[in-house]
């Protein structure tokens, strides 16, 4: 039986550029590096950057993305830091909670989000998506 998310691995085209992005702009801790990769972390998250020259630097056209949590009080400064660094947005926020959707240097679609599953479900109970069904009370 699965017990949780183990780690994320992102293919990158320039390891130094990606390390700087995740360390300096997003604040992840660098735990290890090697010629073709790096391990970074946040509490509860293990992220692997894997050098892959075949990775295209274009954003995918779908909604696949990786979301990071942050507090409401940190959100405005975080977003301003990314905008000042000319980080590209890929979508506007259309859901509950403050969110900023942005691209990393290789076009991976990321999100900074205030809230959690409980707050999302509470909002959806008030205004459900088309055809939405709930399977728990919380």
TrEMBL record:
Gene3D superfamilies: 2,3-Dihydroxybiphenyl 1,2-Dioxygenase, domain 1 (3.10.180.10)
Enzyme superclass (EC): transferase
Protein name per Swiss-Prot or TrEMBL: Fosfomycin resistance glutathione transferase
EC number of the protein: 2.5.1.18
Family annotation (PANTHER family): GLYOXALASE DOMAIN-CONTAINING PROTEIN 5, GLYOXALASE FAMILY PROTEIN
Domain of life: Bacteria
Molecular function terms, GO-annotated: glutathione transferase activity
Domain annotation VOC: ranges: 4-115
UniProt keyword list: Transferase
Gene transcribed to yield this protein: fos
InterPro entries xrefs: Glyas_Bleomycin-R_OHBP_Dase, Glyas_Fos-R_dOase_dom, GlyoxalaseI/FosfomycinResist, VOC_core
Keyword Transmembrane helix belongs to the record: no
């Amino acid at each position: 039986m699965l017990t949780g998310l183990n780690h994320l691995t992102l293919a990158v085209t320039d390891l130094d550029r990606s390390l700087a992005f995740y360390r300096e702009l997003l604040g992840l801790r660098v735990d290890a590096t090697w010629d073709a990769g790096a391990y970074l972390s946040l509490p509860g998250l293990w992220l692997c950057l894997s050098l892959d020259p075949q990775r295209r630097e274009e954003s995918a056209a779908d909604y696949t993305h990786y979301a990071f949590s942050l507090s409401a009080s940190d959100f405005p400064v975080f977003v301003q830091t990314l905008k000042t660094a000319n980080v590209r947005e890929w979508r506007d926020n259309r859901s509950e909670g403050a969110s900023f959707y942005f691209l990393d240097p290789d076009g991976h679609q990321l999100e900074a989000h205030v809230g959690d599953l409980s707050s999302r479900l509470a909002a959806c109970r008030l205004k459900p998506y088309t055809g939405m069904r709930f399977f728990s009370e919380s």
